Amino acid sequence: xxxxxKPTDSEADLLREQEKFLTSGAPSAANVVRRPDKRxxxxxxxxxxxxxxxxxxxxxxxxxxxxxxxxxSLTPAPPKKSRFKASRVxxxxxxxxxxxxxxxTHVSAVLSRIVERDTSSTPxxxxxxxxxxxxxxxxxxxxxxxxxxxxxxxxxSIFARQIAAQRLNEGKTPSHCAPKAAQTPEHxxxxxxxxxxxxTDQCGAAVDQLTARxxxxxxxxxxFGGPDSLGETMRIHRENQVKLQAMSxxxxxxxxxxxxxxxxxxxxxxxxxxxxxxxxxxxxxxKQPQGKSSKDNxxxxxxSRESDSSAAAAAAAVxxxxxxxxxxxxxxxxxxxxxxxxxxxxxxxKPQKEWVHMDKLxxxxxxxxxxxPSPRRKGTKKAMQARFDFAGSLIPPTEDLPTHLGLHHHGExxxxxxxxxxxxxxxxxxxxxxxxxxxxxxxxxxxxxxxxGEYLSVLQGSVVxxxxxxxxxxxxxxxxxxxxxxxxxAAVHALKALLVCPEDEECLDCTxxxxxxxxxxxxxxxxxxxxxxxxxxxxxxxxxxAKEKEERKSDHDVARQDVVKGLLKxxxxxxxxxxxxxxxxxxxxxQNVLQILTRIARHSSxxxxxxxxxxxxxxxxxxxxxxxxxxxPSSPLPLSVYGLPLASAMKLLRVLATSGRHACARLFNSLxxxxxxxxxxxxxxxxxxxxxxxxxxxxxxxxxxxxxxAGYGQACKLFIxxxxxxxxxxxxxxxxxxxxxxxxxLQLQRVLALLSLLTQVTHTAGCHQELQAGMxxxxxxxxxxxxxVSWGHVSGLQASLLGHLKGFVKSLDxxxxxxxxxxxxxxxxAYLAAYYHQLSRQNCFKPVETLQExxxxxxxxxxxxxxxxxxxxxxxxxxxxxVVCNVQSSHQGPETSPSLPxxxxxxxxxxxxxxxxxxxxxLLTGLGLLLETITGIHKGLSCKFTGLLLSEPVIGYLRxxxxxxxxxxxxxxxxxxxxxxxxxLLLRLAHGLVPIEPDVAKHASLYHxxxxxxxxWLLPGSEYLGHELLSTIIxxxxxxxxxxxxxxxxxxxxxxxxxxxxxxxxxxSLHTVGALLREACVQLPSIxxxxxxxxxxxxxxVLTSRDALLGRNPWISSHLLPELTGPxxxxxWPFLPLVSLYERTGxxxxxxxxxxxxxxxxxxxxTHCLQWLLLLEVWREEALKVILPxxxxxxxxxxxxxxxxxxxxxxxxxxxxxxxxLLTRQSRLDSxxxxxxxxxxxxxxxxxxxxxxxxxxxxxxxRLFGCWVLLPLQRTYSASMKLAVFGEHVGMLRSxxxxxxxxxxxxxxxxxxxxxxxxxLRLYFRSLVMGTLKPRWCPLxxxxxxxxxxxxxxxxxxxxxxxxxxxxxxxxKIYYLTDEVLRNxxxxxxxxxxxxxxxxxxxxxxxxxxxKRLESVLRRQDSSDDKGD
Length: 1429
Description:
By secondary structure, the chain is an all-alpha fold.
């Protein structure tokens, strides 16, 4: 048998199979037949019989064996006819239509034989000669001569009129022109509108006209299947006429209303459209008798006219009323009347009958020419669609704006002005340049207003988030690739409005001169943990790196999580470079692009690196916008800024330099910034050939960039070169700060930037000596080189700046100069703090002279400054300006998106805050820095500043801070960092005063409380502050005044009464807490060492933070703070030793312990941790309020889980008993909610199940562990934990011997309310009946189960059938119990009683109601048994 060829067969295989086929002689499936060429007189032969001579002229025929050769007999299709065939150009012998009809008879003819048609013998037909060059073309002017319009049946096309004319010539009547419509004036009259064609008394005549028709105008009879369908239709028509003639006009109107109310409106519209076909055109209407209107009307078939014209109009209004779109909440109003139809009189240009298709009015198509209806508020409470004008303002729905403003060019809601976001998105992709530009500009204005928070009170949801979710980022990126400069301008403006918030940048500039103001957090979105289920089982070497995962993501996924990353992935930087380099746009676009690049650089250090690495971008920016020479612009607003220095370009360089010391070095060394700074700073701003404001801005940014570089120890050689210019600028400070100067604000910013530069240079010069010594002793190890500036270069500035400070302090008395003086004084204080801090580390330091100098500074400047009434009034604003104290501020922040974080600064001038001029934070922070420095040198000066700490505003502010719970976010972190600095400086001042000043020592507990709450607030970059708080204040005996003033004794005295009430209590009671506290106070230094050891993993961060905060500039690697992932120290840091020990040695996945024994020092660490927790719970309860009670319980459970015998150690037992008593006080139990999952755990139930397993394994009936296990079994908590105890862990009941006296929790919390879980009640009953729960083994749970089972079986409440059956079953089983003691306990249980033998009271005999209940159950059982018998 032959096989079919396969794709894998070679050519040799195919040839071999062909040979087999030819030798087998089998017939082929298809034959190739050669058709004869009749033109050459050839005969057809088979494939094998042809010769090579005729091979090239063969015709192929493919036959299919399965189809029959004989075609089935089919009814041929009707022949095609053409009415105009005779008058057209034709060929002589052959007609193409007839050939098609003859050959194309059936599709099977094609499938049966596929034959190439032989056309060799077909004669060629030439066109017939007509005497015309081209066929005759019908002109529209000849239509009237062919057939009258009235005979053509009204509105007809040219083609229809030609057919009608031909029929008239043949003596035929058009089949579709029945005499029923528009043949005579009488017939035309019956199609007129009722209110125009008749009065009320003409209704009967109208009915006569309706019934006088020769046939129905709506029904044709085609649906009838009989042979006489037309006759049946006429019979129905005559019956309708008889009925109408027998009805009165009022009855006809009633039936009409009834019919209209029952019919589907769509059916009514269909009927009217059918009637509209028979309405005469306006040309024929013009020939109607006078008094008749030409308005069209479409009445229902077989329905009489209404007698009242107003009623007809109202009915028409109801029929044609369209459902209104729901928009906005408003007052209810009546449905509007529909406007009158458009008539010929309303048209400015009258239609002519010669116009093609313009001889009849079409009102529905002319509606768009009407004036728009005035907008109105709809009667609904649903939200409306927001519409905006071109300025981005939201347009109220009731505002009626003129149409010439261009705000009505949209299809939806045409009466409302403005464009929706969807319509703007559509316009932005238009092919018209103006529409694209206008849409993008409008979106930019909307984004600007949304970022400023103008829509928060009027719109639902976030506009920015909505636009980003809709794909705005891709829309703007596509628009940047447009070839039209106007579209590029609009796209850049929109992108700038999305990314850049001018108020954010302004606030960051204002805080630049503050302490560590040049540092900032990267504006990275909050990290979201992604599920990586597919990589769970893979080894580490096979898992993807973070970079590989980022590259694998699509642009959409990256942009959805991080807008800036998405833009960088979409190659935004090369496109912006192209726009600046090739397009060379207008100044506004250049400024926008520079601001966009600045925002990208603020995103992260990696983004800043990408900006630096973009080919030719930075070189072009520096050469074009920071030139070394330029000519003065011809006007204040030049047409091009190319070749002029721009402050925005200098600011971009400053932000890039902030990202790291290497980036700063690239700017100064590779890009030539070092050569450009002297061009801007060596001369006065007025000499720079720039507009005055721009000159001040660019010199300010130049000073800031230099200050950032000096903060790394770089560009200090410039200080030596430009020292004369700097000294000259310092000498002119008082001269330039003129109150009447309109540019005073810019002058102030320039002076502050100059002082920031001098502060950083002073810090760098102070490190010269240390670095010089380090190079000598390093012996080849890596060590930063010493800066070129030394202490001798900067020491001469102090006298000049101190004189300035004295002058500004005196200027506080002048109201005109007060504001400018308050603005610059903090910068002078920060400089003096840096100077004296570095002076104390120099070899040239002279202690005696310095102490005298500091005393003079204190008496002449600082004390007078603090006591000044202006400063005192400023300090009163401490609490209102605080971010920490005003967490629940009424201010509603601007819109932010999770993928595009911001600082929420819009409107900052209009509300209290740290940056406003009325804020005391800059002044107090600078003063605190100076006080910390000088009191560290001259400790005797601390007493002179006691009044600051004891002032009422400061004390009130600290009290508010001790009770605050600030939230962490990008919008608050940049301000919280500065407020944390002030709190730390106040605490440092208190640290020096508490031991020596009794008045300050009275508030020691307040300062200690503030230190405890401040520690977990500290943000990344402030680790050194946390280390200092732990080392000096938090564990200081001076700040825990209760330990020295009889605090432990007071606790003991407070618990004496409780001891007398419970003399039989065998467990440690609360009166032992006093001794434990006394021991804890003694061990405070050891406790401090324990916690510092636990936080040792933060040492690199602490050292980095120390270098930044202490001004060790050459060691600083970046002024960009670490990513804002959360506070440095967790809020539950007092539990840290316990948690870390559990993580190292706790229960493993298999249920056993991960290690055999505890590591060395673990017992001591746990003891110190428990001592510290006990101290905080008793004396600093407020400091632990941020930790949920369930979290405290979960963390303390680690005592039992991290080892098999740790909880049995005597010091651990005592401390844990004390903590258990504190946690189970009435107020604590009420706030304990075990349904809330503790931080770090999925649920408390999982932890409890591990506790049960550990209890069964290692507890040995320990009472402390037993109390810990019993605590979650209270009635208010989840039944799942009780089901676990009485289910899979029922064996533990034999060793859970905690008594009611030992447990400090009232028994009522376990027994009330009665249990309603049927599975748990069955387990309770089973444990009692089976003997697994006995009073001598587990007295507490025995009482609890008795109470719940007794309440259940004797309950009188109605219940489901299953519950009732369970009650009867339990009661019967109890009655037949052989254990008389248990039977009596279950039946006679009364109430729990702590001091009774079994822990509960019983009835002496069964109460009547219980006895009756028992008898009814037993009687029911007996009756059922009798029925069974």
